[in-house]
Fold this sequence. Notes:
Layout: H1 13-27, H2 32-43, E1 52-53, E2 59-61, H3 69-81, E3 90-92, E4 95-97, H4 103-110, E5 121-125, H5 131-136, E6 143-147, H6 151-164, E7 169-172, E8 186-192, H7 201-210, E9 212-224, E10 232-233, E11 248-249, H8 251-260, E12 264-273, E13 294-295, E14 298-302, E15 310-317
Parallel strand pairs: 2-3, 5-6, 5-8, 6-7, 8-9
Antiparallel strand pairs: 1-2, 3-4, 9-15, 10-11, 12-15, 13-14
Helix pairs in contact: 2-3, 2-6
Amino acid sequence: MRDYLDLLKTADKDAIRARRTETAARLAQPKKGFLRFREPYEALHHLQARFTDFSKDAVTIGRADELGETDLCLVRETMRAFMPWRKGPFDVFGVEIDAEWQSWRKWNRLLPALPDLTGKVVADIGCNNGYYMFRMLEHKPRYVIGLEPFLQHYYCFKTLRRMAGADELFIELMGVEDIPLFPTCFDVVFLMGIIYHRISPVEMLREIRAAMRPGGVLILESQAIPGEEPVALFPEERYAKVPGTYFVPTASCLRNWLIRTGYTEVEIFCSHPMSSEEQRKTAWMTFESYEDFLDPGNPTLTVEGYPAPLRVYLRANSP
């Protein structure tokens, strides 16, 4: 398999390869937390799909008639081992995975502002199981590199990518804090559903811009609060039951953050209220979801009494 680092002349290759070595040694340990997701990944090592389709709402990897009953049962059991599924849907050898988020809705909203990905080097920061990375393949990028710090999503993506034979897609067990390892590397960066989880969002935006090539494009999607003023909510403890939420900005506040950190041609191209039609419990994600995060007597408020979230989308350029 090719290594995308051979293409990235400005990346800190020694540090990234050292991190890979450390990660591989750590994940090779026979610990339950590692085996829980490593073993399902290894169980499907022998399968590769003859048919794939990344152009539809459900990312399709293989058809049911490609496998015998034993392997079909193995695929079904293995996919359930990666629960809860947050992003999707996927159709894996006929196993229909209805994830918590109907992620095709977000993808369709950003398509009008999608830059040309043909031949580009793309980063997806916080890529989860790679749903959006698979959807990018229709647009012919050279490489898409996902950064994902959670082991569950890391192994889930690696399992799907291998079965799909998607050699243009890569993943590193890293987070946005590792983006300084990639100076001036990316033509396009996707930052979706991440910024409100960071305690220093402005500094993060600066570091991301430093990882972009001149003329590069950032697609930023975020939770937001309603309002025209450039302000951000800083919850006392948690927002919509999530303790790791810090600054929840208005769209204009996000725009100002981007301008103040040196981005140009900043555009708010979509804003919409959240809905339990888009984020909800399913058979593949059985825990609390969006409707549980709202005040049952007033759906315009979260359970903590804060304004219920919008989702906003911005596009910005690196000069």
